[in-house]
Every structure is written in C-alpha cells, then in structure tokens.
Write a structure and sequence with these properties.
Layout: H1 2-6, H2 15-23, H3 27-39, H4 47-54, E1 59-64, H5 71-80, H6 82-85, E2 106-111, E3 116-122, H7 123-127, H8 132-146, E4 150-152, H9 159-164, E5 171-174, H10 181-190, E6 201-205, H11 209-219, E7 229-232, E8 243-244, E9 254-255, E10 257-263, H12 285-304, E11 305-315, H13 324-333, E12 338-340, E13 353-354, E14 361-362, E15 368-369, H14 372-375, H15 381-384, H16 405-410, E16 417-419, H17 421-424, E17 429-436, H18 469-473, E18 477-478, H19 481-491, H20 495-501, E19 506-508, E20 517-519, H21 525-528, E21 534-537, E22 539-544, H22 548-557, E23 564-566, H23 568-574, E24 582-584, H24 587-593, E25 600-601, H25 608-614, E26 620-628, E27 631-640, E28 643-646, H26 657-667
Helix pairs in contact: 12-13
Length: 671
Amino acid sequence: EAAAEAAAPQPAAAAPKAAAGRSARGPQTEAFAEYYRAQKIVPEADWATFEAALRRPLPVTFRMNSTAAAAAAVEAALQEARAFLRPTVPKNGGAYAYTDFGRPVDAPFELPWCRGWQLGLDSGALKFSNDPVLRETRDWLVRNGAIGLLIRQAVDSMLPVALLDVQPDDVVLDMCASPGSKTTQCVEALFAKGGVEPTGFVVANDVSPARAYTLVRRCDALGAAAARLAIVSHPGQSLPALTHGCDGGGGRRKRLVTKICCDVPCCGDGTLRKNPEIWQRWAPTFGKSLHSLQLQIALRGLSLLAVGGTMSYSTCTFNPVENEAVVAELLRRTRGAVELVDVSDKLPELPRDPGITTWKVCGDDMRWLDTYEDSQAIKNKKERRRFRKSMWPPNAGGYADGDGDAARVLDQLHRCCRIVPHYADTGGFFVAILRKVAPFPEEDVADGAGAQGGSDAQPAMTGRPVATRAEKEFRARQLSGDALESVRASLGARSKPFAADVAPSLLVRADELPSPVWYAAPELAPLIRSRLHVVRGGVKVLVPGYTSAKSRKLSALGAPLPPMELTAEGATLLAPQCSRRSADASSGDARLLLAKPNATVALKSLSSVLRKELKKLEPGAVVVTVPTTKGRAPMSGVLSTDGLCIRFHASRGREHGPKAACAAVLKTLAE
C-alpha cells in the first residue's frame, strides 16, 4: 500500500504510452504468469480474465469518515456530491462523463459495507481531466479529504480492519502503519458508535521515522479523534510490550493490546494495477527475501496480543510464500495458542477466495524445488541462504513426525482470504484473522527476565530508551506547576475538575510556556511518556498566537506575550472545562464569523446577545458554540479589542484546510 500510494499518477498526455507499457510482455511478465499459474491462485479457465484485470488501471475508491461526530458534515458532503455520485445517465445510451481521450466513464457505485464509493475511472484520468463533471468530482475529493470527511483508500486495503471489528474499548496496534489509511480506519472505528465514549486507543508504528512523519500528516485530518492516537517508530519485530500493572501472579504485566493490524512489507505484486512498473522488475526472489521478516513481525505481534485478542495478518501480494506459508508457520510455532478465525460469512459484499493448502517454491532460475533439502543443494551460497523450511507447505517437510501439526495447520488454512482483481474490480490482497486463545510457552517468563524469541520480557512503562531521531522529535512530559496553572486560568476552568479530569492528559515538549500544549486521552498519556520512541502523541489543544521570532522580540522589549490560542481540536476536547470562557453564537453570527477563515469580525457586527456575553470576558481564547443540525458545536475563538475571530490553524501541507473547514461547518448550520 505504501508503494502504491507513493506512486505519482501519469499526466494525460502520457496515457497512451503507459497503456502500452501495461500490455507489453517480457521475460518478467512471462515468469509472473509461469509462477502463479503453477500456484493455481485462480482456476486455469479464469487466468486470461485475471491477467486482463491486472493490466487495467485501478479505479478511484474512497470511504467516508465513520465517526459519529462527523455524521452531519458527511451527510452534507454527500448531499453536495449527489449530482456526480448518483448521476442521471442519458437515455440515449451516452455516459454521464468522458475522459480526455473520449472514453465514457461508468457511473460511480456505493460500497455500503465500508461506507465507500468506487468511481468509474483511475486516479490519473481523474487528476488531469478537463471534463466539467470530473473536475467537480476531483475538487470535491480534495476539499473534503483535507478536513478528514473522506479518505482515499483501495477497497481491498479496507478489509483487514473491517474484519478486525474494532470496538470503542479496544487497544489497537498498527504494526507497519505508513502511509496510514488503516490507522485512520482504526481510529474512526473507536468513535463509530454514537453515544459511546471510547476508552480504547490506537498505537501506530513504522520502522522508518521519515514514513512515520508522513503518517503524522495523514492523521492530522482526524481532528480531535487523534487524542486517542500515538505514532511511534520501532522495528516491528522488536516493538516494546504495551503492558500495565500486574495480573496478580509472579510480577507479570498484563498485556494491553486487544486488536492488531499487521500489514507486513511484501513484494507488492497485488498492486500491479496502481504500479504497472512492477511488471518489468518482478522476480520470484522478492517473496523469498521477505518471508523471514514477515514471520518475525507477525510472531512479535502475536506475542504482544492479549489472550482473547485478534490480529489481522495481511499483504498486497498473491505469493503464497508470503501469505499461507507465513500463516502456517505462525500456527505451527504457537502450538495451539493461536487459531485462524473463519470469516467467510463476514462482508459477503466483497467476493474472495479461500486460502490455498498447496503451493510450490522455486529458485532464482524458476526451477521448482520440492523440499527444503533440494534448496540446500543449490551451488550459489547467497541464494541458498534465503530459503527457510517454513516456505514449503506443511505436508512438504519442516514438521516433526507424528506431532499432528501438519494436519492441524492444513485444516485451518482455508480460513484465509484471497482478493483477486477480476471479482470486484480491485487490487490483489491477502488477509488472515488470527485469535490468541492461550499464552505462548515463552510468556511464562516474568517481565524483565530477558527472555528471547518474541516474548514480552521487557516492561513498556519503565527503563531508559535508546535515543533515536523519532524520540527526539517528541519527548513529552506532563504539564505541571505554574505552566499548568497558567493554562487553567486562561481557560477559565475550575480547579478541582480541571486537576482531576484534564491535567493528567496535558503534555508539553519544552520546559516552559509558550510552547504548544498537547492532549492525549487519559488511557494513552502514560504510554506517550513511556520508553516508546514516540513521533507524535495526542493532538495540539493550545498553541502560541504568535511566531517564535515575535515572542523573542516582545520578551526583549519587556512586553507581555499575547495569550495562547485554542486549536479546533482544543475547543472540542476542552469545551466542558471552558464554561466561564464560552459564548453561544446564533446561525447569523456563525455565517459572519465563518465567511472568511481567520477573519476578525467587529463586535458591533454581531448580534446583541452575543455581544453581551463577550463583554463579560477578557481578551484571549474563547470557545464559541455554533448551532448545527446535530446540536451546538464548539469552535476555537480569539477575542480581542478589535472583535471576535474563529481560528483555524493549518498544518504544513494542509494550507487549504481552513477554507474547507469553514465551508463544511456552514453546510451543517441549523436555522
């Protein structure tokens, strides 16, 4: 998925050349066909249809934000898009829109199981189209994607989290999270049940700090929901345990994680429709080189999982060496502590094949190797060392005689899911849902004993971490002392409720204010302050209303600094504490205040009722509530002697967000 999303679409002028590249055949494409035909991943009669589907560009798909808080805005956005999401097709047999090359575009259709939609054209054709309807569609996607009302994501990529069935009280770990579409899906699932306040949270991990920062930018659109998200950077196979307290025996720590999304690095040939260049470099060595890493990451994930929890293991490849072979070895090594969950009755709207139970392994020269011993007869030492016994099917060696492991594993492999592109016009994907039904044998070692091989030996809350680039970017501590009191006073919060409900969740990175103040959910805040290498934890709720250069200038002059400002997320999360610094705006006031992002409206232009409330307040941060179809919504305001301003703070790369946010709120205003 990371490789697929990183691929830039080709301009329209290059489309004919790209299309020719998709249909060209060479040694690599012939090897691809030979390898996968032998694996029988699809019936031989379906091979031509399967390959033809792989050579067509992947259509654009997206899902709408599923959080209860965004329901009104999502409804308004879909109503705005009704003309092109549910177009009227001409009765004369024409299409509702055409690409720049005159190809008719099929009408979009809804994907109810994921609250998504699939368009009738690919991202390249959409991006460079001059058709008025398609331009309007493109602008709508960009505008609503900027504020998190929709997320561009491949249909097959949505399956792992959908099958995990994340609940509001789940602690979710996304082990290989970048670029973040599955992470946002997990966070949204925590908030999907209206009226149920979530107590769970999501920890998203990526081994690369650079990709973790990409993940941060992707998750900015989550808004206040990101208070239940921490982004960390560790090798997946050596993630520290997420634990707390003691479970009452032997000093062992209780595992926190109840759901894991383990979308491991893979050769990515399931993304050929998005990345046709893979045709020219595909080789059977790709799968073999990643098998051991995939197994290590998945084993570590199962080790971190609480008993009774579930983990999705997924790849975007067709290769059984990276799919069923890894799952089979997980089942064998865990000795009955893990079982495959049958999800064949879940999401029947998305057709898929069961997992396979037999497959073949070949060398770099495409010669088939019946057993592991055959691979060790290869003369090339470098190639020989890439093979593992676990690459072969359970009935082809690597299992102890008479222990029943092969039969036990083979009986379960059909519970895996294979997505093939010609069934529902998707990419290729593999997913298996595993449930941990008992502790692993090595988990009998008490935390801190230093056990090896994927145990939970190291506690997550203590110990001195090794310094990394990621950790230096976000070393958080709890806000306290005079700085905490300054924040409380600026919000007009009452001392006891603030100290009990909010103070433990407020974090800062610098020693003293002015510095952005972050808020993390009470259940998540201790982890952010732990030995994890945190890239980002929680959301900003208070920021300086001035640049660092202006701060230095005012300090040098001895002038007082302007007050801190609430962010949009801060207004949502801290509104209950700000009752003494809040004001209710009418729909007419809201239209004035939201007519232009970050514009100050003179007090005399506001209604008399709102002016009366504001005159009671000192200049500074204020929560302004506006009437919407789902009740009053809190917004960040800044009161000054010049007037009142609704403040939107744009993050880097999302500069168009404030304008889109204003438009979204205006659409949901109640009269």
